[in-house]
Specification:
The structure holds 2 protein chains of 2 kinds.
Chain A: H1 2-7, E1 12-14, E2 20-22, H2 25-35, E3 39-43, H3 46-56, E4 79-83, H4 91-100, E5 106-110, H5 111-116, E6 139-141, H6 148-163, H7 188-203, H8 207-222
Parallel strand pairs in A: 3-4, 4-5, 5-6
Antiparallel strand pairs in A: 1-2
Helix pairs in contact in A: 2-6, 3-6
Chain B: H1 15-25, E1 30-31, E2 39-42, H2 47-56, E3 64-73, E4 78-86, E5 93-101, E6 106-108, H3 117-128, E7 131-133
Parallel strand pairs in B: 2-5, 6-7
Antiparallel strand pairs in B: 1-2, 3-4, 4-5
The chains are: A alpha/beta, B alpha/beta.
The complex binds iron/sulfur cluster.
């Protein structure tokens, strides 16, 4: 028993009455679910292009993580990627699409708009303040727009959540992995200092160097 | 391609010549030198006739209404209609401004001249509440049919809107 409890704790399913069932079905099911996500692409504004399409295209290549079969039909999809602003008129349609998806279904909200209304939070007559006002969201990917890498990270987070997710013993329960913890030996002040240095670096423009680069391009054009 | 659709390359009028040509068609048109494109301001009475001539005149040939929008000026009690015109054949651009009163915003429709205006006027009606006489189908375009009010007016407010906490 030591081998199983030490190395495959998830394969052990305690039964009422003190018995235990050795099962790997949960892991197999969750593993395959996590690795064959079929996204329904719900792109309503800039995030759709900047994040969703860029992530699916060749450079970032969502296919590496088994989630490239983008479906325009909710019946064939199990991952709803919300990319963009949701307005009052669109919200009921979003709800309908989500309801049409078969269980188990997952939702990633990318971008400030889908998280909170983002830049349109104040003085907007129609922007819904976050997709979670309409449907439950599993993973939030912040940014305006987020980098494609951020969506990939969000997808990996979702996969982790699915693998640790609902089992025969805990149907319908998911555990959200906490990924916000800082690595060992790093403090918040280190992060702040690093960001400040980066901002300082990118905020300084060497005009002479930039002009030289421009001239080199122009020279290439003339050839 | 039919001969009358071929571009007339190199025949764009200079901004000054363009404004002068428009003033020839409509003497009351005022030049608007504060704009970055050639621009004129005309009265609402002159506008329908001028629109047709801008499209038909052989030197102007404004065959495309690129955008139609509006600006709300509550202080001076007017709504300023903005028409961005382009001539694909001649390659020049013109902006036309038309003032209408804010408390009774009725404007002539230019659908007969540029059919694309049907959509654009519906949008301006939707967001600014400008009513276009002789528009064939003036319904809301983006907002729900039962929406109350016109949200791009500067004094618009509803219960859903959040104010920025100070
Ligand atoms: S979060 Fe930013 S980039 Fe994304 S849809 Fe909203 S405004 Fe566009």
């Amino acid at each position: 028993m030591g081998l199983v409890t030490d190395h495959l704790p998830g394969a052990l399913l305690p039964l009422p009455g003190g018995g235990a069932l050795l099962t790997a079905i949960d892991q197999v099911v969750n593993w395959s679910r996590a690795n064959s996500l079929w996204p329904l692409t719900f792109g309503t504004s800039c995030c759709a292009i900047e994040v969703m399409m860029a992530t699916g295209a060749a450079r970032h290549d969502l296919a590496r993580f088994g989630a490239e079969v983008a479906r325009p039909s909710p019946r064939q999809a199990d991952l709803l990627i919300i990319a963009g602003t949701i307005v009052k008129k669109m919200a009921p349609r979003l709800r309908t699409l989500w309801e049409q998806m078969a269980e188990p279904r997952y939702v990633i909200a990318t971008g400030s708009c889908a998280i909170s209304g983002g830049p349109f939070l104040y003085h907007s007559y129609t922007t819904i303040r976050g997709a979670d006002e309409v449907i439950p969201v599993d993973v939030y990917v912040p940014g305006c727009p987020p980098r494609p890498e951020a969506l990939l990270y969000g997808l990996l987070t979702l996969q982790k959540m699915i693998r640790e997710g609902s089992t025969l013993a805990r149907p319908g329960q998911v555990r959200r992995p906490v990924l916000a913890a800082l690595p060992d030996g790093m403090t918040l002040d280190d992060v702040r200092a690093e960001i400040a240095a980066l901002v300082q670096e990118t905020a300084t423009v060497d005009r002479k160097a930039a002009a030289a680069v421009g001239a080199a391009f122009a020279a290439q054009d003339r050839v | 391609m039919a001969a009358d659709l071929l571009p007339l390359a190199g025949l764009a009028l200079s901004p000054d010549a363009l404004v002068a040509a428009v003033q020839l068609l409509c003497p009351a048109a005022q030049a608007r030198p504060d704009c970055d494109r050639p621009a004129v301001k005309v009265t609402v009475g002159d506008w329908p006739e001028l629109a047709g001539r801008l499209r038909a005149h052989a030197d102007l040939l404004f065959d495309l209404l690129e955008t139609h929008t509006a600006i709300d000026w509550p202080e001076s009690g007017r709504i300023e209609l903005v028409y961005l015109l382009t001539s694909l054949r001649r390659g020049h651009h013109l902006t036309v401004f038309v003032d209408i009163p804010r408390d009774d915003p009725v404007a002539p429709s230019v659908c007969a001249v540029w059919p694309v205006a049907q959509w654009q006027e519906r949008e301006v009606y939707d967001l600014f509440g400008v009513r276009y006489a002789d528009h064939p189908d003036l319904r809301r375009l983006f907002l729900d049919d039962d929406w109350q009010g016109f949200p791009l007016r500067k004094d618009y407010a509803d219960a859903f809107m959040l104010d920025r906490p100070s």
